[in-house]
Amino acid sequence: MKRLIQANVKSLALSIVALAFLAVGPSVARANELTLVGGTAGLLNAPPNLLTYNLARISGTTTGGTLELNAPAAPPFNVNNLGSFTLQQRPIDFTGAFTLFVQFDAPGGILGSNTSALAASLFLDQDGNLLIDIDNTPQFFVFSNAGGSGVFSVTVDDLLFVFASQQAGFASSASEFQAAVTPLLVRTVNCPSFPCTGALTGTINFTPAAAIPEPATLLLLATGISGLAAGVRRRRAGVNKM
Predict the structure, then answer these.
(1) Quick one: which H or E segment has residue 169?
(2) Which of 123, 189, 203, 184 is closest to 159 using CA atoms?
């Protein structure tokens, strides 16, 4: 009887440990990984035949909770940036507006709308460079599906077209511009010739739904096994009395 109880308890304990590592280990290792599929569209109001926008497709998986959308411009088939702008010639005067639409088809189970719209103003800065000043506020998406749940956000960078005659003094003007922008979310593209194309870039940050961290899980597991051992000792004491 004593040996039978010991064998059963040992088998149960090993099964608990194995299941814990199978269930907890992979979930912890992949806790910050999220596969995203989506795309962008844009509504541009600018001087005709001067500036155009090309949409992008998004397809990637976060690493450490982050996916950088900073692939080089490749119109008309941009991938893993937020689209691209092509400037046909250097503008003498420029004012315009732009709305970026970012849509996600995966992950599934997004609560509310799966599309976010960000507004931008387009104008020449004090050095005559063209700035696409877009809303840098993180856009949040909450999701819940059979594979998991959590929240991810998209943050978009401003885009600055720097022209050839301005590039020599760009370092100083950039410092002044950066000091006026908080936080600094500006990507630049130099335009020595035209047409000149630059990618609109950004970052996706993912936070999974709150889960028990691995150390805490192992602590709970150890506590459970300790309780199981205590139960075994009580059973042994009962058997010895028989």
Answers:
(1) none
(2) 189
Q: Over the range 183-218, which residues count as b (16 or more CB within 10 Å of their CB) and which as e?
A: eeebbbbbbeeeebbbbbbbbbbbebeeeeebeebe
Q: What is the DSSP letter of 73?
A: P
* Closest to 187 measured CA to CA, from 177, 62, 204, 138: 177
Amino acid (1-letter code) at residue 37? V
Query: In angstroms, rounded to a whole number, what is the distance separating the alpha carbons of residues 165 and 169?
Result: 9
Question: Other C-beta atoms within 10 Å of 126: how many?
Answer: 8
Q: Give which of 146, 43, 58 is closest to 97, Cα–Cα.
A: 43
Report which of 93, 104, 143, 97 is spatially closest to residue 118, judged by C-alpha positions.
97
Q: Beta-carbon neighbour count of residue 82 at 10 Å? A: 26
Both tokens of residue 148? 């998991």
Rg for the chain (alpha carbons), in Å?
A: 28
Q: 184 pLDDT band (50/70/90 cuts)? A: low
Adjacent-strand bridge partners of 159: 132, 187
Left if phi > 0, otherwise alpha if psi is -120 to 50, otherwise beta: which for 13? alpha
C-alpha 83/C-alpha 199 separation (Å) is 6
Q: Token digits for 218?
A: 């192992």
Q: Distance from CA of residue 8 to its chain's centroid?
A: 47
Of 147, 159, 152, 237, nearest in space to 191 by CA: 159
Task: Please tell me the chain's helix, strand, coil percentages from 3-state DSSP, rounded to the nearest 5.
Answer: 30, 40, 30
pTM (predicted TM-score): 0.72
Angle at 22 between CA 20 and CA 27, to 5 degrees: 95
How confident is residue 181, by pLDDT bands cut at 50, 70 and 90?
very low
